[in-house]
Amino acid sequence: MTAVSKAIANLQAAQQRAMASRPKVGGFPYLAETLRRAGVSRNVWSLPSCESRYYTEQGPVVMQGTPLLSGAADIPAFNQVALIAALRKDQAGESTFPEFLSATWLAGVVNYEVDFNARTVTYFGCNDEQYAEHYPAVELK
6-134 adopts what CATH topology? Predict the structure, then answer.
């Protein structure tokens, strides 16, 4: 087993700080700002595999989450209305993160990218569809 890299240790510490201090409702901007201050510039999620790549000042890191499905599946059609509904439900603190990932997949999202410096999240369908939102700047305690 290899030692944990500085990039992984820094990322995990930032994630722990963010999860301990973020509010349940509207908490994503706090998580995002904590990661940005820790030197993370981008985060790219692939669905349904739940692979998450973080691009940090100390090097890129990949985290493999629990996939949403196994075997072959048709990719759902991109549905911006369903995606926005999933986003608003999550922003209101009415879904867990796994529920959010499942709802975005069912809305036809195959990738999404967070740009921590621009404060944007862009969601992509498999036929070049996309939907982007800005999130607010926040002050950390």
Answer: YdfO-like fold (3.30.1810)
